Amino acid sequence: MMPRFKIDLQVDYPGKPDRYYSLRLKQALKNEPVTYAMPKRLFVIADIEGHFQPFCKQLLKRRIIDKYLQWTFGEGHLVILGDCFLDSDAQAAECLWFIYSLEEQARKEGGYVHFILGNHKILTSEWRSTHPRYAEQKANSRKPITALYNGNTELWHWLQTKNVIEKIGPLLFVHGGIPPAVNSLPQSLAEINDLARANYTNTGSSFTDTAHTLLFTAADSPFYYQGYYDGTATSEQVDATLAKFGVHTIITGHTLQPEATAYFDNKVISVNINPESINAEGLFMMRKRIYRITKEGRREKIKKG
Q: Which PANTHER family does this entry report, sorted A to Z (predicted)?
C-alpha cells in the first residue's frame, strides 16, 4: 500500500503569518455517489469564490470547524454549493486543499462534505499554475519536503470525482439550476453526472449531441442557469424537475441574492449571499425543517419538509 504523504499548508491568519495546518493525501480517489440519505443536520453555503478567511470564519462561526480548522460537526453534512474560487484568485488551491482535508475529517466522525461543482472550476484550469505555500520546509525540520511535487494535479484529479447535481434526502443541489431542456433529457441523475464527469477536461470542445451541449456549452446549463430568479422559469417547469428527480426542494447558488430566499412556494431556495463577508448567510436543515441562518446568527424557518 502506498504511503499517505503528509503536507503542511501555510494559511493566512491575521497576526499569525506562520500558521500551518496539515493534511494527508488520499489513498485513492473515487467518484462521489449522487444520492444520499438525509442526515440529522445539514449546513449549506455557496460560491466561496476564493475568499479563504471568510470561508473558514463562516464555518467556525457556525460550529462546523474549530479554531484549528478541525471538523466539529459530528455526523452532520456540509454542502459547498458551487464556485470555490474566481478564475484569477490566488487562494484557489488553498480553498481546495482545505475542503479536501475536511472531507477526511468529516468521514472519520460519521459526517460528510459535499462539494458540488460550479462553472468556474469546470470551464477553466488557470488556477493550476498558482501554487499555495505548501512547498516550504519549516525551520529546524529534518523531514524531507513532500510537497514539491505538482500538488495541484492531485486537486485536479480530485475535482473530477465531484458531481454537478446531487440529491440528499428530498433535496436537490445544483449550482445554477435545472432548465427545461435538462428536464427533458432521458438520462437519470447518475447518468447526467457520468456524462458531465467524462468531459470535465474537454469543456472547450464542440459537442454535437444534445446532452453534452446542454451540460457544457448552453447558457442555461445547470452551471449557469438563472431562470428561477430572472422571471423566465415557470411553476410547471419547477414541478417537472421535482418529479424527475423525486425531490420536494431545489437548492442553488450562483445567482447573488441579498439573503437566502425561497421561490415558487418554497420549492426553490437560493443561498448565494456575499461570499466575502464572514457573516454571509447559509442554510441549516434539521428535523425536516429548513432554516435561513441570518447574518446575526439567528435561525429563521424557510420551509417545513
A: SHEWANELLA-LIKE PROTEIN PHOSPHATASE 1
